[in-house]
Amino acid sequence: MPRLTYLASMLMLWSATVSAEERSLRSQLDGRWKLVSTEQLLADGTKRPNPLYQPGAVAYLMYASDGGLCTVFPTPDDKALNAYCGVYELNEAERYVVHNVEIKNIPVKVEQARVDEMGAAGKRYVTIDGNRLTLRIADPRPGIKEDTQTWKRDD
Predict the structure, then answer these.
(1) pTM, whole model, 2 decimals?
(2) CB of 148 within 8 A of CB of 38?
(3) 3-21: per-residue pLDDT in tens?
(4) Which end of the chain is more exposed for a tag (fewer CB within 10 A), N or C?
(5) C-alpha distance from residue 59 to each of 17, 52, 82 (Å)
(6) Tell me: the pLDDT tens digits for 112-137?
(7) In 10 A of CB 110, how many CB atoms?
(8) Which one-letter DSSP state was computed for residue 23?
């Protein structure tokens, strides 16, 4: 009997520690994420936060298991909200997501810059580490070598 109890305990411990890598990327993305930080690596090697987000901006990104997505974030001057919803395509093998925007509310004066910066229909490479999600835009704008956003799970 002690051996059976030991085996049952080990099995429960093992099942409780199944790593995130063993779950599908879609199941890991599912939920609400809150923006932690942004960072751009410029062509000259310097780093800066993405200027389209003000420091400390509250932004949310939501992925649904059925492929739906929505995001909301303030304009840089914090006078209006940007938002878009649609569906996402996920390539689990290459670990990237593409946001296909179906409806949006983006102020006209920042719309083109936002679409260019966010790469709304572009690839975002996905890294998930615990409750942290990092999205790296595959082809950032000229002059930017790398553009990343870090989010934390908020559900």
Answers:
(1) 0.77
(2) yes
(3) 444 434 443 444 444 444 5
(4) N
(5) 30, 12, 9
(6) 454 544 445 678 999 999 999 999 99
(7) 16
(8) S
Domains, the chain, in order of start with CATH, read: 20-153 (2.40.128.280)
8 A C-beta contact, residue 130 and residue 120: no
Question: How would you classify the pairing of strands 96-105 and 68-74?
Answer: unpaired
What does residue 2 show for φ and ψ, rounded to 5 degrees?
Answer: -60, -35
- In the numeric block, the tokens 């310097």 are attached to 46
Which three-class secondary structure state does DSSP give residue 108? helix
56 touches 76 (CB < 8 A): no
Q: How far apart are CA 50 and CA 118, in angstroms?
A: 10
